[in-house]
Design brief:
It contains ten helices and nine strands. By secondary structure, the chain is of the alpha/beta class. α7 links the parallel β2 and β3. It is elongated, with a radius of gyration of 18 Å. The structure holds adenosine-5-diphosphoribose (APR).
């Protein structure tokens, strides 16, 4: 099937399912590709509850370094195009695995963060989850005296049930799913496209490399997020509802 057959401009409920690849063009390293974060750092020492319980200062050092780095980055063309499409098609939803907040900074409003956000912290006391964009943090301790914890889904953490429900509602009612920049290796997030495929909804994968799910997509666009979304955007002549 080619892009014309997909009648992109007639779509009303598009889900963009994104991974670290869309932020690579913001200069933010991916996790597994060349130069990926998990090639430089052992995630078991920096991105799991056990590591945090063992040495919260070491985890916060790593995490604050990433916050400072991402704060200096700006949304890439791919983030901006998706935000533009949402302006034309209000039924657009972003389901992202990314924690960098770039979709929101680009202007996307309907964003579901499956893996949390580096711009939120939380505590088990009644102060719960709150936004925090301070770089550096004013304090790594909550007012109750306990260490604040990044509001991120670390390895072995369960996903937030309310977040999963929102994502499921979006993918079960979408009329097109576009996956951008994910290696499709981390579950349950990687299941999202499978749900659209089971519903026989057209699915597009954008990635410079093939993934394990590439054979199951309606269309595979081999290329980078910005370039391929540009092509989709130009092609679709999205009509306002
Ligand atoms: N445009 C599009 N895709 C790109 C680009 C680009 N410019 N550059 C790289 N990619 C692709 C790579 O080919 C790869 O398939 O992005 C993907 C990045 O894969 P990962 O680094 O594994 O990132 P992701 O799939 O988002 O990881 C999922 O794993 O570590 C956990 O919680 C973390 O959310 C993350 C999850």
């Amino acid at each position: 099937m080619n892009l014309c057959d997909l009648a992109l401009g007639k779509r009303r409920r598009i889900v963009f399912f994104t991974g670290a690849g869309i932020s690579a063009e913001s200069g933010i390293p991916t996790y597994r590709g060349k130069g990926g974060l998990w090639h430089q750092y052992n995630y078991e020492e920096y991105a799991c509850q056990l590591a945090f319980d063992r040495n919260p200062e070491k985890v916060w050092d790593f995490h604050e370094e990433r916050r400072a780095f991402v704060a200096r980055c700006t949304p890439a063309e791919g983030h901006r195009i998706i935000a533009d499409i949402e302006k034309h098609i209000p039924g657009t939803t972003v389901i992202t695995q990314n924690i960098d907040g770039m979709h929101q900074r680009a202007g996307s409003r309907n964003v579901i963060e499956l893996h949390g956000s580096m711009w939120r912290v939380r505590c088990d006391c009644n102060m719960g989850v709150r936004e925090n964009n301070d770089v550096p943090l004013r304090s790594r301790q909550c007012d109750c005296g306990a260490y604040l914890r990044p509001d991120i889904v670390w390895f072995d953490d369960p996903l937030d049930t309310e977040v999963i429900e929102r994502a499921m509602r979006a993918v079960q009612t979408c009329d097109l799913l576009i996956t951008i920049g994910t290696s499709a290796m981390v579950f349950p997030a990687a299941q999202i496209p499978l749900i659209a495929m089971q519903r026989k909804v057209p699915t597009i994968e954008i990635n410079p490399e093939k993934t394990g799910l590439t054979p199951y997509y309606t269309v595979f666009l081999k290329g980078t997020a910005g370039a391929m979304l540009n092509r989709l955007w130009a092609h679709a002549s999205w009509t306002t509802p």
